[in-house]
# Entry
Amino acid sequence: MITGTGVVKTYKQRGKVLGAREVQALRGVDFAIPKGGAASFIGESGCGKTTLGRIIAGLETYDGGEVAIDGVSMTELKPKQRQPHFRKIQMIHQDPYSALNPTRTIHQTLYAPLSLRAKQTGRPASWIEGRATEVLSLVGLDPATVLSRYPHQLSGGMRQRVVIARALTVDPEMLVADEAVSMIDVSLRLGILALLKDLRERLGVSVLFITHDVATARYIGDDGELYVIYRGQVVERGPVDTIIADPVHPYTQSLLSAIPVLHGLEQPGEHPVMPLESLNESQSDEGCLFARRCPFRAERCTTERPLLRITEAAPQEHACFYPERRSVIARPMEV
Amino acid sequence: MTKQAPGVRIDGLTVVYKTPAGELPAVRGVSLELPPGSITGIVGESGSGKSTLALSLLNAVQPPGRISAGSVDIDGLGDVVGLAGEQLRKARGRHIGYVFQAAQNSLNPLKTVGKQLLDLGRSHGVEDLRGLVREAKDLLGRMGLDGARVLDSHQHELSGGMRQRVGIMLALVLNAHLVVLDEPTTALDMITQANILKIVREVHDERGLTTLVITHDIGVVAEVADRLAVMYGGRLVEQGPTREVLASPEHPYTRGLIRAIPRLVGDIDEAQALPGRPPTLATVPKRGCVFRERCALRMDVCDDVDPEAILRGRRTVACHAVAVKEHA
# Structure
């Protein structure tokens, strides 16, 4: 179980001309990912979803709020003390081409973390080889052919599986997959998504999936929670299928409207929502963060910021004064 | 001067790359027609030869690659495979605009966009550079950008979506009427992608272009293209009107590819990954059908004979199994 309360992250930029500027990457985010559960963070580039993922994986610090792993708060701990906790959370990066050392065989890549793990848990060196074979089989690779290969001898899909196998060597409780399928060939993407789902079921690891493609979020498990993040704030949160079927926040609606319609197979939703302008970080922080781009903004939205809560409008949490259901996603054609 | 949208006829095009294992074909015997004023989308995975095919339109395949057979006939230009030197350089930009993958390195990081625009104008002998800048500003404004600001910006000051629009502007500003977009929305998020696709469609209609979009994402093609061509292992396996192909794909690869798209609605288990993996230059079978290793409809004949592309109605499909079914 990993939880976050009011997590804040601010990046300071040193300006040459105008002096220092601050960019609020996260503005008080709450989250809870149960053991064996699944969660997906979605949003545009620059919304803060990757920063949050990196904080959860221990690769980034935070300035405010609290992150707790299995009930232990990370805020007070020294970096050295945090380490054993963050071992439980492993990151899978977007680009399997650059995530693996090209001069090492897969065997060497897996051997290093495994020997460390053997030392930590007091297992004999003989355990390492067996475990290497085991993790490769877990991710659907044939150890006999893969172990002696170099990364360039494998396809993108296979490389991503190796990256996942490497994450599994340290017995993680959670995998953080940041756009883990966006660089994989289309015909193989579902294979990787199915693998993540399978690992949840078989090993009980939880999966945090970070993506801008909402459709892929469905495939790591229908019990997953979806967090829609906009400018460092969660604007809608709830079960994946509920939000996809019935989004009430205009930002979620724009994200879903932007997904290409497979004309011939699908018909577009009746009321697609397009943001009025593109994301601009320098927009004022007053009122609702989405107000400037929102086609439905009212007077109140520019002065007051809505909080994440449940209203009569929808069963999922949303941060909007005027939540409304709109049919935005493409429906299959009626035959 | 108004130019008409040109038609393009690619016939029997083969492009080979020299490797230690001999010359291997990245594109093999591809015939494709781009009707004047249409948007055609080429879909394929990595190694399918789609980008090589696109570069052939400019006769810009770099060594160790070369066009070894076939022709690319463009209205008003003739066969570009036969062009060379100065003639070829003039054709690129003037007649054919090419939009490279934006997030990658297609803009010069040391020069402002405006300076690059002027370079482009000078190298093509444009006399009225002020006019060129005005045209560029109009185009950028048309795409929802502040033209003056963008022209004064360096690449790093622009977001991915803005750079993509700059790429489209540079491809169109010399009044080219054949435009090739290579992965126009890869690495952009969904909302930006939707905006760019809308712009591509609108600019296409307004200026009367013939457009070719190269992508790995069927969704992109579905959104903008009139016609869809699917490439696999250097071969064109199926082509036809986008809606028809999506509604009733015939080639087993097209079917598998469409089934492999994660969807927002419908049964989760219906979507399936294709077994196996796409071939690379070295692993493409030399004889027989390129897709047979991953094909559920594989027959004996597929091992030896490369299926020919057969035209039926408005659709072309290269598959033995589909041809047999048709005769039965």
The mean pLDDT of chain A is 90.
